[in-house]
Amino acid sequence: MSVSLPVPSRRGSLVAAALLSTGMLLSGCAGAPSPAADGAGRTAADGGSHAGKSAPRPLAARAEVPAAPQEIPSLGPHTRGQIPDSADQAVVVTGEGHDTSRSTVVLYTRDPDKGWQQAGDPWSAHNALNGWSEHHRVGDLRSPEGVFGLTDAGGRRADPGTRLPYDRGPGFVAHGTGFKGESLAGAFDYVVAINYNRKPGTTPLDWTRPLGAGRGGGIWFHVDHGGPTHGCVSLSESRMKQLLRWLDPAKKPVVVMGDAATLQK
Fold it and tell me: For the chain, which has fewer Cβ within 10 Å, the N-terminal or C-terminal residue?
């Protein structure tokens, strides 16, 4: 008995040929289909998908916004505006009150990228007996408020290692007693001249008064004697040595001084 095999139809032959031409005939577990094209004619390997959707694109990296340079936190805009752009060191003397003689000193350095950075712990200090004045005059027993350069130093004792010009001599002697009866001996062993009503670039003992004698002068940082001053700012001997070694004329140091409320303006 003979069995007749079916003759493939013309359509079946065409389908088979098409499958062979595209490599889509089954070939066992090792067989793999070629990448499917998406609706735009791109294959999955080119970023297409079997569903005809484009692959998600990576998010663009967000641009980093640099932080604003830090300001000295205890100072208001008016006071900050008085600090020269050239100054990269600041000694901030903050009085407890307008009419009080106790104050705090903090050192700051200016980083070109980060702004003002605190350079150490606060120091205790004295200022003038009656506090502070925006218009200091001879005999008012107030310390002048404002921003002043620090360019010159000196004292009775040898230079402790400052980079400022240092004038050592016997003229740095304080006589008598302070407002609390304390001895003033040794108060001028180390001094830094504050450039209020004086000629910068000279010894602290130079008595040139550009604003006139009536506006006072001779305002210094000097060694603390345990009580209020006539107009200066006083620090312990160890702090005075530290200040002298820290100040760098290349960084154009300034002092910012006044009572807290005024400095916050």
Answer: N
- Helix H segments across 23-113? 77-80
CA distance 73 to 117: 10
- Angle at alpha carbon of residue 56, lines to 55 and 58, rounded to 5°: 130
Q: What is the DSSP string of 165-213?
A: -EEE-TT----SB-TTS-B-TTTTSSEEE--SSS-TTS-TT----TT-G
Helix extents (H) in 101-142: none
Give the pLDDT of residue 220.
98
3-state secondary structure of 115: strand
Could you tell me the two tokens for 113?
């990228």
pLDDT at 39: 38
244: how many CB neighbours lie within 10 A of its CB?
A: 21
pLDDT digits (tens, 9 = 90+) for 217-229: 999 999 999 999 9
Alpha carbons 49 and 55: distance in angstroms, whole number: 7
What is the predicted pLDDT for the residue at 58? Answer: 56
What's the pLDDT score for residue 258? Answer: 98
What's the mean pLDDT in 39-55? 42
State the pLDDT at residue 159: 98
Instruction: Tell me how far apart the alpha carbons of residues 47 and 53 are, in angstroms, rounded to a whole number.
Output: 9
Give pLDDT tens digits for 120-173: 999 999 999 999 999 999 999 999 999 999 999 999 999 999 999 999 999 999
